[in-house]
Design a protein that fits this description.
Blueprint (H helix, E strand, L loop, with lengths): L4 H5 L4 H20 L18 H12 L9 H16 L14 H27 L6 H19 L4 H9 L2 H7 L5 H6 L1 H7 L4 H5 L12 H10 L1 H8 L2
Helix pairs in contact: 2-3, 2-4, 4-5, 6-12, 7-10, 12-13
Amino acid sequence: MRSLDDILTFEMDSTQAKAYKIALLWEELTQKEFPGERHVRLKKTGDPRKSLLFRHCYKLVRDTQGIITDQEYKLYVIAQLQILKLQTNGQVHALISPECLDFQNGWKRWQVWRRHFDKKMKQHQTAESAGVKASETIVIQELEESKKFLFSKIGQPNLESMKMLMKDYTLVRWITLEKVTPFYVLLSPLVVAALGGKSFEEHFLFDLSLYKPSITDEIRRYFHKSFAYEFVQAECK
């Protein structure tokens, strides 16, 4: 099994090391997004730089210098795979190729993936600049819709299921696609517990600060009552 030790073993320079790390991410994330499907992997033995996967990742790093930050590459790979998943309804039935990472077409998919979230954030920025907050009625409605959606997908959330949603970026996808409201992320004790000390913004590169002013004491009381099971679960960690 390949590991980061190969960076030292094969004396990779900084660009090669970055490409290699992305290749390892590709292997991990394709397995999570498409379990059971075939996907291109690194060579099992020998110099991994001679692999097709490495060459695509290396080209991606060269083409995106100064355009994509090091912290964004993981989200970039996730964006390509999740859009492919949506397009194929999760059933590829063909070899999943790293060609989807190539910058020329991959950048368009990356922008589509971020569009829903960015659009909503821009709306809140406009509202904040005008001194407007989301009404308590709207916030509660979004929280109730998120609750129903979560129950329909995973049943009553608990710490283990929340950790899984965070680990494979499913929660990020649901927020981006507006299935789960950012207000839920800011209020959920399970999200806090699953992050293990990190903030959601730090871990997922999302800026949720614009949502915070709309969370009133009344909203907090509502959440504590309607999502009481989360506080019980979080306290049992």
